[in-house]
Amino acid sequence: MGVVVPLEERPGGTDAGLAPLLKLVAPAMERVNAFILSRTGSEVVMIPEVANHLISSGGKRLRPMLTLATSALCGYSGDGDVKLAAAVEFMHTATLLHDDVVDGSEMRRGKLAARMLWGNEASVLVGDFLLGQAFKMMVEVGSLEALRILSEAAAVIAEGEVMQLAAAKNTATTEDEYLAVVRGKTAELFAAACEVGPVIAGRPRAEQAAARSYGMNLGIAFQLVDDALDYGGREAKLGKKVGDDFREGKITLPVVLAYRRGSAEERLFWKRTLEDGDAQDADLAEAIRLLGKHGAIEDTLARARHYGAMARDALALFEDRSEARALLDVIGFVTARAH
Amino acid sequence: MGVVVPLEERPGGTDAGLAPLLKLVAPAMERVNAFILSRTGSEVVMIPEVANHLISSGGKRLRPMLTLATSALCGYSGDGDVKLAAAVEFMHTATLLHDDVVDGSEMRRGKLAARMLWGNEASVLVGDFLLGQAFKMMVEVGSLEALRILSEAAAVIAEGEVMQLAAAKNTATTEDEYLAVVRGKTAELFAAACEVGPVIAGRPRAEQAAARSYGMNLGIAFQLVDDALDYGGREAKLGKKVGDDFREGKITLPVVLAYRRGSAEERLFWKRTLEDGDAQDADLAEAIRLLGKHGAIEDTLARARHYGAMARDALALFEDRSEARALLDVIGFVTARAH
């Protein structure tokens, strides 16, 4: 069941910020990719088919690269970082499979979502399989502290998704409530991916906390930029359609801001389209107009830069180490995606 | 979010075989129940609601009791057994939540399935949450070997479910292929639940293997009796409707046997009703008639007794210990459910 796993490299342009990270982790990342392929195997042919459809679809593998980079930053020299990085990517892949079922999404990374090809059933179950495989990999590394961090992350991620499900139909969601969703569904895995590096390297608590804080704030910035891109990115770049969040009735930060800043009439528009699910094709243009009127996209990006700044300061503890530079550049990459 | 968790005790009747086990584990099981309740909590209110709907619905909690019993059998005296037992029940609950989504089931344990009340989305995500919580509990116990066994089980269970998904529409499934599904989707968790007892008690490999073998064969017997009951049990006892497997197009052992023993015309009947999904209400009666004609139910139960006998022999290693008696009686309980 050999499958080519492209590690997306787009030199120049807005992705230049990722180049130092790619360079830093390239040799280890090759081992991660090989390890990932070796663990999607199963005699049940549907499992590698579904798993590899998503795994080989050209995600940037930012999360596993963060595990490798924070391990390198902390001078780790064993091979546990490769297995934990693969486990992080499997957890992420499992989440995507389940998310697409929950959201009824048709596309993922510019391809048909797995559920469109193999059905919701297979997507749920292959996600479960990958989660089981992820824990097996972690057990092989043998660090109970890393296991604790990643199993906590698994529970928190699911909690964030349920929170989003409950908030999905409430346009009156506050910015704080929405941030709690983002911390759970996105930032927690970034945080855990970064935290396990210093943990397996046996570094002091302060470094673990700093790496976690970097990951958490980077993850929040990442999600907010994603939210902004959903209303303004080019489709080829997003790998999904502009307005997907809108069509799925998702309340994201741009909407939270525009709703709070809007007139009574505008609030009725958001309620009709997002709460009541009565969005027509023409409504997306109106939504984008309202977001523009209230500066909601710009301010979402400004918020993202705020979390980027927090991530930057968290790294100050490591600033004398050369690996820290690559992690700093990732912040630039994440917040610059929008331009 | 306090919820009463009934530990089903039905003295006398066919459940008498469970009495010695219930007595053996009663004090520890109270702690398991309290621990379970303490870990379904979340500020996201939908999580305890969905989780407790199923957790408090009166399952027998056979799997966690097996963990407690094999721990006691091996002289374990810590409190890791309680946490592992709770983790096993959470894994089981997560599986049921996902199964009902995959199968489109409407009922579970005589109540509406969670997905009918909160939707497929919440069922998928709360299942993920419980799986994350299960791993957190295991990590607290600190046994890497128990973690290895249970994470392996998580992957194998999902594999078994995918296998069933693929086999669901194939009436030509062989008995061996079907057994591979049963080992994965049901027996693996029984096996893991039993194996972790001697593992945390630090007992030799031979005892771990014996406990695992007992659990594996007991689990197979359990599933085969379930398959037979689906075509003949009373609804109150099953907590689901007679013929659910038939209506869902599931190929179970009774069908595997009847198909192989049937005429060409009968095979067309099974193909139409199960493969093509064209089952009318009247077809269930015809299915039951064909199963009876070929002795498929009786022989499914005979097969179950065969695995029960294997489970019994696996216990021989422990037969001088009083706790082994309770585990032997469980075999009788499982295989006698059908009468």
Automatic annotation (TrEMBL), chains A, B:
PROSITE patterns: POLYPRENYL_SYNTHASE_1 (PS00723)
Record keywords: Magnesium, Metal-binding, Transferase
Cofactor: Mg(2+)
One function term, GO molecular function aspect: all-trans-octaprenyl-diphosphate synthase activity
Superkingdom: Bacteria
InterPro entries named among the record's database cross-references: Isoprenoid_synthase_dom_sf, Polyprenyl_synt, Polyprenyl_synt_CS
GO biological process: isoprenoid biosynthetic process
Gene3D superfamilies noted in UniProt: Farnesyl Diphosphate Synthase
Enzyme class (EC, first level): transferase
Enzyme nomenclature, EC number: 2.5.1.90
Family affiliation: Belongs to the FPP/GGPP synthase family.
Record's protein name: Octaprenyl-diphosphate synthase
Taxonomic source organism: Hansschlegelia beijingensis
